[in-house]
Amino acid sequence: MSNNLLKGKRGVISGALNDQSIAWKVAEKCVEQGATIVLTNAPVAMRMGEINALSEKLNAKVIAADATDMNDLDKLFRESQEVLGGKLDFVLHSIGMSVNVRKGKSYTDLNHEWSKNSIDVSALSFHKMMQVLYKQDAMADWGSILALTYMAAQRVFPDYNEMADIKAMLESIGRSFGYHMGTKSKVRVNTISQSPTWTTAGAGVKGFKEFYDYADKMAPLGNASAESCADYCIAMFSDLTRMVTMQNLFHDGGFSNMGMNPAILEQ
Ligand SMILES: NC(=O)c1ccc[n+]([C@@H]2O[C@H](COP(=O)([O-])OP(=O)(O)OC[C@H]3O[C@@H](n4cnc5c(N)ncnc54)[C@H](O)[C@@H]3O)[C@@H](O)[C@H]2O)c1
Question: Which CATH superfamily is domain 10-265 in?
């Protein structure tokens, strides 16, 4: 279904690792809605090769960039504007990784050196991206920048571990940079707080199945899928949401406002 909501728009989509990635679905829908895009991911993710299939399908160039590396980001956004033929209308930050989570460290026994890396990859990278975009003046007026987050930034989900604190930082960066981007060129910056979703990053969280099933039962609409998250991203990239900025937007089937759902007790 295409309504050409992004007709003529140019964007950069990070984080498409495989066809389960939320960013993969966003990239597909951006092109379906008339946008031209550049795909980017960390050089190590490129080696897995799956992004090349998406690149071919969407006729989108892939530019490798480690999102923690300012030189890579500088090159990414410079080349993207050249390839796409102008300033950028939208950018998606869809990046998260914690070595502590990956290696099964508990929140009370974190390796803080690894934590520094998790913060850099999963939160500071959002600031780094926007700092480069800001300095290059790479965003078109009334553009839209999004990052994906999770509700553990507000409420305690013990198994989400250090990523809870890191997502809180990510959301704060969205608000803080939203002021500067808005003032400079009417660019909006928002974070979308997505339901648990079966992806490589999601499934890496301890007890993810229980986590997923619980949220699915608690939310009156059930968990939001990666596809519906992509639909929401399209809406946020389109001209229909021009005055929404500096917000953390829950996309979770109503989960975040539930106290108790009798469905949880009915087995
Ligand atoms: N899956 C969920 O349950 C869920 C829920 C809410 C929010 N999110 C968020 O959505 C975003 C996308 O995750 P996903 O679930 O699609 O999983 P995913 O594993 O498909 O995507 C994560 C991406 O981050 C990329 N990445 C890691 N380190 C990087 C680096 N240094 N530079 C550039 N890219 C790097 C990976 O290569 C991968 O493409 C993440 O921010 C995640 O926290 C996911």
Answer: NAD(P)-binding Rossmann-like Domain (3.40.50.720)
